Amino acid sequence: MRKRHLVYACLLLITVITLSGCNLDASKIIHSNNKEKKENFIKVEIIFTDGEKLVAYLKQLGLESDARVYIGGPSTNNYYDAQGNVLGVFNYQRVLYIRALPEGDSNGEGG
């Protein structure tokens, strides 16, 4: 009986050390990924400094948590289709402004 408790304690200790030693978000293991798929995307028209327009979906109007900001100012952010699939990346340094569009607006799909 005592040997079994020792084995369980060692397994628990190894598990705690393994999980704390890496950048693993344990909540992602416990909870399903349905939350990410059900995120609300904002349909936007992105106007770039060269006059180019892009109609796409963003998770939020600011920088996303997984966006990258580089030294010197440029930053990149993903844009998505209506189903949440990543279509590409844009550089905020080239963005003149972003206009939120109503969901029914059909100014042409970006991509």
Could you describe the 3D structure shown?
With 111 residues, this protein is α+β, with helices and mostly antiparallel strands. β1 (42-48) and β2 (53-58) form a beta hairpin. The chain has helices spanning 2-20, 26-30, 34-37, and strands at 42-48, 53-58, 68-69, 75-80, 86-91, 95-100. It has a single domain, classed as SH3 type barrels, CATH 2.30.30. The chain has a 3-stranded antiparallel β-sheet, with no helix packed on it. It has a 3-stranded antiparallel β-sheet with strand order 3-4-5, with no helix packed on it.
The largest sheet has its strands arranged as 2-1-6
In terms of DSSP E residues, the strand content is: 25-35%
- Tally of extended strands? 6
The percent of residues in helical segments reads 25-40%
Distance between the termini: 63 Å
Radius of gyration over alpha carbons?
Answer: 22 Å
* Average residue-wise pLDDT: 77
Q: Detail the poorly predicted runs.
A: none
Write down the overall geometry: elongated
Largest sheet: 3 strands, antiparallel
Annotation field: number of helices: 3
> What is the level 1 CATH name?
Mainly Beta
Structural class, by secondary structure, is alpha+beta
What is the count of distinct domains?
1
CATH topology: SH3 type barrels
In the CATH classification, which architecture applies?
A: Roll
